[in-house]
Specification:
heterodimer, A: mainly beta, B: four-stranded antiparallel β-sheet, 11 strands
Chain lengths: ~110, ~110
Amino acid sequence: AQSVAQPEDQVNVAEGNPLTVKCTYSVSGNPYLFWYVQYPNRGLQFLLKYITGDNLVKGSYGFEAEFNKSQTSFHLKKPSALVSDSALYFCAVRDVEYGNKLVFGAGTILRVKS
Amino acid sequence: NAGVTQTPKFQVLKTGQSMTLQCAQDMNHNSMYWYRQDPGMGLRLIYYSASEGTTDKGEVPNGYNVSRLNKREFSLRLESAAPSQTSVYFCASAYSGGSTDTQYFGPGTRLTVL
């Protein structure tokens, strides 16, 4: 079965500094990877996805993610963090079971301090 | 453009009561999903509907039923609520449900079962 792991429960970063939220995956076949963000008491918002092609994927709100096949990683990055980026971030991978469901990591809380 | 909408936003039930969570999408998507979100566990798929007229169990279907009322609407019913069903419930939709397709999520329903 496909799986993703988010090794950090929480990431703290100062405003203006670069941020990285880590994700590693385990899949059989081609990995289709996604990042979502959840603000307090809100639904999940799609940020970006990797399907194929360029290993650097650009998404919404200035976020990007780097796909690394040899390290089975798909880390989310942003060059300069904003306080408003503080939220819960989920990495997910597509699983062919159950109608191509998404398999989610446990989530990483990002706190950006001013 | 409302995207995916869910009602109600909050609900408190007593053990044994029943209720239906409503979901609708206005993006002309074919596939719809119900997930539950529990702390530290990411999201898990309860049921899905690959297309109008079809529904299938996900990974945690026990205690739930669904109805794909039409292309727009996909409801989730708890026949006899249990405290273990206390969770946040998210509905999602995707254009085709294919492996590269993006799922878009509603704002969620926060359910407490006493």
